[in-house]
Specification:
By secondary structure, the protein is of the alpha+beta class. The chain has three helices and three strands; from the N terminus they run αββααβ.
Length: 79
Amino acid sequence: MEDTLHYLFSSLLTDKKAFKIELDPQSSAQAEAYNVSIPKAQMGRIIGKNGSVIKAIRLVASIPAKKMGKFLRLNLLEG
């Protein structure tokens, strides 16, 4: 799951190493939650107009999670 997220975010950001993906400690057996830290200058690139880019990222990233029988939650953090 983390590999999929890393690929998606690194494809969209200009600085490939400027973000961090961490598993949220509140994840459970049924749901995985990830905290993604992105620089403030790149946040607009990830969110997109009306949130269209982040919605697409969440949709694509949720496919492998659903195959494993889990839910996926992404939290974007400035950092």
